[in-house]
Write a structure and sequence with these properties.
It contains 2 helices and 6 strands. With 148 residues, the protein is of the alpha+beta class. The protein has one domain. A 6-stranded antiparallel β-sheet has the order 2-3-1-4-5-6, with no helix packed on it. Strand 4 and strand 5 form a beta hairpin.
Length: 148
């Protein structure tokens, strides 16, 4: 096996449709930005699997990428993160609990265990920052080769 055989790629999006009134919408978007800014920069002493650099957010208006829905993108490559996947999910759900959102999707692509898609849907339409339990669904896809 080469050094690249154990790479895992994680990417996805957190979606939020802010409140109808402009002032509340701006506060919600800024709260989400603040949650991302509270993540560690790069590798930290507590071995965080999420870092600020892996997230990207468009600006607050239609001219900078936000028509109605706020889209927060993220992506990172790891060395065999599937072995630490429970920790990754826990850290991601902690982030989600601190944000406003309607749904979130995470894609995990691994060499050994295929592709997984994880999806969170806010109950009652939208999630506001809270410690309430989150519900996640998972789909698994694996490409299998046949030996001849």
């Amino acid at each position: 096996m080469s050094q690249f055989d154990q790479e895992s790629v994680v990417y996805g999006v957190i979606r939020h449709i802010p409140a109808a009134d402009p002032f509340s919408a701006r506060l919600q978007r800024r709260a989400n930005w603040s949650s991302i800014q509270n993540l560690p920069l790069g590798v930290d002493d507590e071995w965080s699997l999420l870092c600020r650099e892996m997230f990207s957010m468009p600006g607050e208006d239609v001219f900078s990428g936000t028509y109605q829905t706020q889209l927060i993108h993220f992506a990172a490559s790891y060395k065999a993160v599937e072995y630490e996947w429970e920790h990754w999910l826990k850290q991601f759900e902690t982030l989600l609990k601190s944000m406003y959102w309607v749904n979130a999707t995470v894609h995990l692509e691994t060499e050994l265990s295929g592709k997984h898609t994880f999806h969170w849907q806010a109950e009652q339409g939208s999630h506001a920052p809270s410690d309430a339990e989150l519900r996640m669904s998972c789909e698994w896809e694996r490409e299998a080769g046949f030996a001849v």
